[in-house]
Amino acid sequence: PGVAFTSVWGRDSAATALLAHDCGANPFDDVDSFLDSVDAVSFAVPPHVQSEIALKAIRAGKHVLLEKPIAVSLDAADELVAAADASAVCTAVFFTLLYDARMRAIAERADIDAWSGAQGLWLGSALMDENPFNTPWRHEKGALWDLGPHAISVLLATLGPIVEVSARAGAKDLVHAGFTHANGTTSTTTMTLF
User: Fold this and answer.
1) How many CA atoms lie within 13 A of 193 on its CB side?
2) Helix H or strand E segment including 58
3) Which residues of 104-120 are buried (b: 16+ CB within 10 A; e: fewer)?
């Protein structure tokens, strides 16, 4: 409520025009003109594209709803964080699992410190030929960059801050990660996009 979807920018002008038409919004080919037309921006682009546009948006005073990962390099991520910290805009990274009622119930439990740990398994299919999320950046970065942020967001919400990480790569895209949390609990997650 109270939000108007007014503008669409995209790298493919035909797709941009079609989406804008279907949503009753204005299409833009130019990022700066697009940013001039909005108060806030939500992204659906690869991380290396998102970090550049998000930085422009933040510097232009626009609120940003980011996808994970926010960037593909530590320098680009640090630059985004510094710009956001120096601005009066709101930023958020959208972790969909944290909005699930079941997850919220677990995270809000008063006896969470009674847990001794957690184990997660995420067998994705994003690199399958027919999957719409089969994109070049996922082939390059794999499960750790794509699924890892979601897994870690759940572990942070349920077991608290992470103070130590160890990880091992398995065959193909398989990743095994272990975490020690500030309260002494431990957790593990195994993930792959194949």
Assistant:
1) 24
2) helix 47-59
3) eeeeeeeeeeebeebeb
- Cα(181)–Cα(161) distance, rounded to whole angstroms? 6
Plot region of 142 (φ>0 → left; ψ -120 to 50 → alpha; else → beta): left
Note the pLDDT tens digit of each residue in 87-119.
989 999 988 888 888 888 877 775 666 778 889
User: Mind listing the pLDDT tens digit for each residue in 177-192?
Assistant: 999 999 899 999 999 9
Q: Which two tokens stand for residue 66?
A: 């980011």
> Tokens 């008063």 map to which residue?
110
Answer for the pair 54, 78: CB distance below 8 angstroms, yes or no. Answer: no
Q: How many CB atoms lie within 10 A of CB 14?
A: 9
Report how far apart, in Å, the C-alpha atoms of 85 and of each of 80, 91, 165 are: 9, 9, 26
- Peptide bond connecting 149 to the previous residue in cis, omega within 30 degrees of 0: no
Q: What is the pTM of this model?
A: 0.82
| Cβ–Cβ < 8 Å for 70, 77 | yes
Contacts of 28 (CB under 8 A, 6+ apart): 7, 8, 9, 16, 34, 37
pLDDT confidence of residue 89: 94
Would you tell me how many other CB atoms lie within 10 Å of the CB of residue 184? 12
Contacts of residue 131, Cβ cutoff 8 Å, sequence gap at least 6: 125
Q: Quick check: 179 and 187 in contact, CB under 8 A?
A: yes
